[in-house]
Amino acid sequence: GAYQEPFRPQFHFSPTRGWMNDPNGLVYQxxxxxxxxxxxxxxxxxGPMHWGHAVSEDLVHWQHRPIALxxxxxxxxxxxxxxxxxxxxxxxxxxxxxxxxAIYTYHSIQGEKTGRNxxxxxxxxxxxxxxxxxxxxxGNPVIGNPGVRDFxxxxxxxxxxxxxxxxxxxVGDHVxxxxxxxxxxxxxxxxxxxxQGAQGGVWECPDLFPLQVEGTDETKWVLIISIGSxxxxxxxxxxxxxxxxxxxxxxxxxxxxxxxDWGTDNYAGVTYNNxxxxxxxxxxxxxxxxxxxxxxxSTWRSAMTLPRKLSLKKFGDDHMVVNYPVEAVFxxxxxxxxxxxxxxxxxxxxxxxxxxxxxxxxxxxxxxxxSLALTNDKGEHLNVIFxxxxxxxxxxxxxxxLTGFQQEFGNKLHYMDVKQLPKGLYEVTLLVDxxxxxxxxxxxxxxxxxxxxxxxxxxKLLIGNTSNSQMELKGFSISxxxxxWD
Length: 486
Ligand code: FRU
What we know:
The chain has 486 residues and is mainly beta. The protein has two helices and 35 strands.
C-alpha cells in the first residue's frame, strides 16, 4: 500500500510526494487542525513554493487536502500563519461565514533576479469553507518591502488586551512587530533582537505567545526564533527568549536565550492559533538546511516533528519552555509490558524487539551515567549516552545507517547540555520512527530530534549502566506504535 517506502515515517506527517519544508498556517477551526506547509509538488528538492495542506481532528492522523496557495504574479508563497477572524475584522466574511485568513510572504523571483533587495513582501488570502478553497486579497501585498533582503515569515495572533492583531516578522538579524485592526493595514510597533541571542544565520519563522508559568498565576511571553545556521549541533536550530510583551514591545528577561531542541532536525517550528483550552501546540520541520535536499528518501522529502505541547516551567531562576508530545500520540501505543529492573555497575542488558523503528521506549531513573544503543543485524547503531561528569547527553548517529549522502550528517556527535536537570527521578522517552528519533528527557525539559536512515530496522536495544553503582529503572517499557496511515 501507500507509505511503505524505505524510511517512510509511520507516525509522523509527511507529504505523499514532493518536497516539504516549514509548517505554515497552523490554526484550529471548527474541530479541524490545519497543517499547511512549504511545498514544491514537482520535485523532491526545494523549488517554487506553494502551501500544501492537510487536516486532522487529533493532530496525529492526517488527511491530505488539495494545495491551498499557488504562486501568483506577486511571487512564490513563503512561510506564514493563519488566523480565525471571528469578528470579521477583515470584512472577508460573508453571510455569517467566519473567514480563515492566511498571512504569508511573497518572494518575487523576478525581483531577486534583477538584483533588487525588496523582493519579499507580505500578502493575505481568505477561505470561507474552513480552508478548502482560498481567495487572495486583491490589495496584496499588504506590507511592502522597506529595502531589506530578508523580510518574511509573518506570525499573526489576536492580542486580547489591545483588541488587535499583532504580527511578528523577521528582518535579517531581528524581529519586527506590527499591529492591525483589519489584517490589511499594518502599523510598525517596535523591533527586538539586534545583537541578541544566536545570530549564526538569518532569523526565520518567529512566533510570540503567552504561557502561564506552571504552578503560578504569572504569565510570560515566549519568542521563538529559528536560525538557518549556527544551531547547537550545526546548521539550523531553534532558539527562544522568555520575557514580557505589553502590546507594543517585547522585553526579554535577564536570562540567556535557550534552545528549544538540541537535535539537528527541528527547524522553523511554530505554534497553533485558536486551540481549545488555550493549549500551546508546536510542530517543527524535521530537517536541517545543511542536508535537507540530500536525504535518501525516494518520492518525497521531509517529515514534521510530532506535535508537542509547550509549557513554561521554572528550574532554579530560569524559565524553560518544555516540549512534549501531545496526549494523542501516546494513544497510538500498544503499551508494552512495564517492568522495574536493576542493573549492576557496568552491567548491560539486551532486549530483542522487532519493530524498534516504530516504537516508544520509556523509563524513569535517577542514574545519569548510562547508554542506550539501538542496533540491527547489519551492525548499524544509534547511541544515546548520558554522562554525569560533563552534564551532557550525547546522540551518536555516525553509524546509524545511511550517512554518506552529505558530509555533515554523520561526521560528529550531537551534544545537549543538561546541567539544569533537577536531581532525583526523571523520565527518559525515545520515540523512534522509520526515519527519525526524538528524545525527551524529564518530560520535555530537554529534547533532541534527529533524522536517521537505518537500512534495516533496528532489532536490539542495549541498556548499559556506565555508573559505578547500581542503576534502577522504573516502568521500563518498549511499545509498538500504530501507523497513522493504515
Ligand atoms: C525557513 C525558510 C523561511 C522561508 C521558507 C522558504 O526554512 O527559509 O524563512 O519563508 O523557508 O521556503
